[in-house]
Amino acid sequence: MGACRLFREIEFYYLKHGEKMKHFLIILVALISNVTWAQGLPDQIVVMDFFKVETSEKESFLKKENIWKKVHQQRIKESIITGWYLYKVRYAGEEYNYVSIHTYSDFNKLENPFPSEIITNLSVDKDLKNVSNSSGRKVKSEMSKLVAFTGKSKPSKYMLMAFTVVDEKDKGAYVKGENTIWKPTHQELIATSSQDWWAVYELKFPHGLSVNYQFVTISAVSDFSDMNKLDYLGAYNKAHKNRDFKADVDNTLKMRTAHRAELWELVDSLE
Fold first, then answer.
1. CA distance 255 to 173
2. Per-residue pLDDT reduced to its tens digit, 111-143
3. Are 187 and 236 in contact (CB under 8 A)?
4. Is the separation of the CB atoms in 76 and 270 below 8 Å?
5. 90 and 195 inside one domain
6. Cα 222 from chain centroid?
7. pLDDT tens sequence across 188-217
8. Is the confidence at residue 14, as pLDDT, over 60?
């Protein structure tokens, strides 16, 4: 069904049913807008597993991750995932301090992400018996979809993570703004400074009122000192000759609220 025809049918239904249709229409507009602005992007799904590892458990945790690394290597070989990345959270809070990231190019691969035959053939269970049970615990998992990206697709040493709250009715406009205003700004940062790449992911699962944020924005750099060299205002002015920086920032802040920001450091990766 074409978008114009779909909106006409919704309009007739809305006139008939009035206020009952209001919230559904807001959500549907946001969903369609997201689809429009996601066109042209690689179909990337990201699953993040968050771990809490005590200082005494660090060695065992990294040993266990190294055992699972051969499983991830086989998963890449069989085109189940496109990459695996292990990050340490610098200046971490109480909830978690390590994150394992798995990237997928095919949503259907998520149905069976860890085939039992891979685990059996690689003798994973046997190897895990030699690792202490006190090796950290997984506190949560999240699945997100890429909605904006620019730069070099590579694992960077550091990622500046911004977790943001966006109301359901504003999601379409927010994604549009990220792609039309802030993506060109980050393209300038990549071309003229030390940023490697930039991305925005929309959280898909879990979803609902119990979730504290809806989007994750990532700015990636190779060296710790690079974070101090990012001139956002200068990049914005180069990217947008006829726009107003303060107005664009104010409009963006009307749609999103910062939940928290974190600094992640790369520990290991496979592609």
1. 8
2. 999 999 999 999 888 888 878 777 889 999 999
3. no
4. yes
5. no
6. 19
7. 999 988 899 999 999 999 988 888 999 999
8. no
Q: The tokens of 224 are what? A: 């710790």
The pLDDT-based confidence of 34 (bands split at 50, 70, 90) is very low
| pLDDT in the model for residue 203 | 96
> What contacts 109, CB < 8 A, 6 or more positions away?
79, 80, 81
Q: Give CA–CA dist 25/213, Å, rounded.
A: 22
Number of domains in the chain: 3
Residue 115 is given by DSSP the state -
Please say whether the beta carbons of 247 and 254 come within 8 A: no
Q: Does residue 148 share a domain with residue 137?
A: no
CA–CA dist 257, 213 (Å, integer): 9
Which residues form the domain of 29?
1-39
CATH number at residue 110: 3.30.70.100
Please provide the average confidence, as pLDDT, over all residues in the chain: 86
In three-state secondary structure terms, 249 is helix
Nearest to 133 by CA among 86, 50, 63, 49: 63
